[in-house]
Please model this.
Amino acid sequence: MSANSLPEGAAVWHSLEVDKALDLLNSNADSGLTPQEIQQRLQKYGPNELEETAGRSTWEILLDQFKNIMLLMLIGVALISGLIDLWGWRTGTLKPGEVPFKDTIAILAIVILNGILGYVQESRAEKALAALKKLTSPLVRVIRDTRLVELAAKELVPGDVMLLEAGMQIAADGRLIEQSNLQVRESALTGEAEAVNKQATLKLPEETDLGDRLNVVFQGTEVVQGRGKVLVTNTGMTTELGKIAAMLQAVESEPTPLQQRMTQLGNVLVTGSLILVAIVVVGGVIKDGGFKNIQELLEVSLSMAVAVVPEGLPAVITVTLALGTQRMVRQNALIRKLPAVETLGSVTTICSDKTGTLTQNKMVVQSVSTNNKTFRVTGEGYAPTGDFQLNGQKISLEESPEISALSVACAVCNDSVLQKEQGEWAILGDPTEGALLTLAGKAGIEKDQWNSKLPRVREFPFSSERKRMSVIFQVQQVATGEASSRGVDPAIASLSQSEPYLMFTKGSPELILARSAQIHLGNDTATLTEQQRQKILADNDQMASKGLRVLGFAYKPLTQIPPEGSDETSEQGLVWLGLVGMLDAPRPEVRAAVQECRNAGIRPVMITGDHQLTARAIATDLGIAEEGARVLTGQELQRMTEQELEQNVDLVSIYARVSPEHKLRIVQALQRRGRFVAMTGDGVNDAPALKQADIGIAMGITGTDVSKEASDMVLLDDNFATIVSATKEGRVVYTNIRRFIKYILGSNIGEVLTIAAAPLIGLGGVPLTPLQILWMNLVTDGLPALALAVEPPEPDVMQRPPFSPRESIFARGLGSYMIRIGIIFAIITITLMWWAYQHTHAPEYQGDHDAWKTMVFTTLCIAQMGHAIAIRSNNRLTIEMNPFSNIFVLAAVVVTTILQLMLVYVPPLRDFFGTHYLNLQELGVCIGFSALMFMWIEAEKIFLRIMGKKAV
Model:
């Protein structure tokens, strides 16, 4: 078979015999490929590398920032303002002391700053693929042309014969040819923490799940122990790792709800502004009967355009989100992408992995069955404290001596170590064996103390074929507590039967039971009856149905040490001790977090690679699903069409035995149903789903670099409860963003209407210059808005359903509030403007006739301070609130008022901003009119309270 006729990946390699796979790839297990074949295949398949698609360049990202419609309008305003100043400068019509182009420079500076702000947020390069590439091995050992050679992993081709040994990272996907005690850690690819025992001789069904393909190995996984010879079947983008890379790059990032709302806001503001500008210009031309005052009309139009754009809003939103990230970090949630802070508040569905997120990632014994009795075991984690209960009542170990015997077996037939580190109990070794040590500790049996009582002399190790392990001990005489007497420890006295050696065996309950001839009852042994066997098997089935991992224990007294390799004969005629059922126990705080989710209208969903019985047991215990709820397995999901999955996705809350592409399909189906999805993940296999989800959440402790780079948020404690806390914070941030948008845009509408009214009611000139408007939008609006961004949460923030992520920024009365307050603002200011104009143009007036403009400017600014104080709550009056619950608002009001007065009374600032000196009477009138704004908003609250309505 030539290179050009090799299979195109259609072969399901795990379902083929080794010889058939070698034949398909025209390779030889002993001699490998020839140089000519290697060259042909390199040309056909290319190097064994992950390919990267081209993304946006740095310049494209930067230029995209200036496509924002509000920034485009500001650029247009700056250019027109610059042309007017240029005309005035060249014709000599500038006012004495006036600095040309200051408005143009100020506006362009704001545009550039906003552009840079957007660029910094968006330019964080996606590094998920770079992290994925790190999983590929740099060097690999292969057999080529009968010789053993070491070469770069990128030179591998399908048909190569690759050699594996402990500690190696596997460089390509392949079919095992032969193996010796080969264990491979595939957690990065499958999410399963335990190493997999590989077997070359197996031939598996085509539909076998990825994690159960025991006769193949995958690129990016790690050899834990043993050695193997592998036929390379897939390289580069055709490997399982390559498929993940392709899925990762195929996922397109969608704009967040906040980004969509800000786009909508910009479109509405700019459209409204242009309509108002057209009305003012056309109305002015008609009123004047021509274009004789066109420059004045253009200046009015420019001021209106600047007034309508909330120049400080992007900065305020960015700071608000940044403050939100700081608060979230303190709750163990690290935000990688700033808009994700607000996006969390829109989540309707949380899809969570089980292991380590909903559970403790610590195996804990829940149940023990011995002497025809089943005991419940209490306690949390690896702490060796807890009770044995029978029918809900605590029992003493003296009443059930067989528990002590079983506990000794758990402690000594064990290779792990239980120790206390920094006040926390931890395991060195296998989590399952750790759970057994904790169980023994609860019965008062400590492994360290038994090393001298039962020194180990031989063992028959566990293997996937045997599904059991045995350890042989020499029985030692110890002090028994009586004066000068020595003997066997009472806990095992009835087990050893005066023999010098004792063997403990643990493993698959069915296999251990089949090799048992007797049963341990109390302090005696008896022949194991068929009825007892059926009872033990029934207990085993009952434990397994609850999702427990069950182990069987037995022992055997020995007269001598059995020879090496005699396990088959030695492990016969055992004495049955009992069953131990364990579970990766749920985190204690997760139950309350799940209930909080449900109260907040958020649906929790469990997606796990674990067995369906285990998944259902944990989900039911935590309240994620009802008793007997449907579990959808990966195989069932694989057979579903997209339409069928979409119909079922709202009905299923437990998914078991799923693969990475299944996670991606689940997220996509939920999104097509209009759900807003947060998805957790830790492995390489989770990266595409994390990127597709509206909020991708990676694990900080167990997560791979690939999953973290593809995520929006990293859980520093891998805890589901942290997601719920972060969601609450997201809701608070969104509420505060809406609050200061109301605050900022209400005043902007008032500014626009005031500017538009000036020429229409016959007042000379523009009341506000673009520079003064920029000052209001950036300082007198910006500082209080920042203070409002840290307003503490309302009490009911997690007692209501999430607001639709697709709702308009103007939804739920916000738009009507802005227009209503904007009109009131304008009425107050226009009234003041008319009075001030008459006042400053009276014959007896001694000051500058343009001082009326400064009165308008000052009134608008100080009125906003009252607005900021009143808007802290939608329903409570200001006098009902603790003024120090948000000290930043008070500070912002005081500082902003002082800054505003400096513009009026400090000569250099007065000259630069074009303001005029106001006497105390004029300042008092400005403050009086400004107070009307505060009084109106408070009166609205009283009116709505009387009417029994809730404010926006």
Remarks:
- Confidence is low (pLDDT under 50) at residues 1-5.
- The two ends are 74 Å apart (CA to CA).
- The chain is about 45% helix and 15% strand.
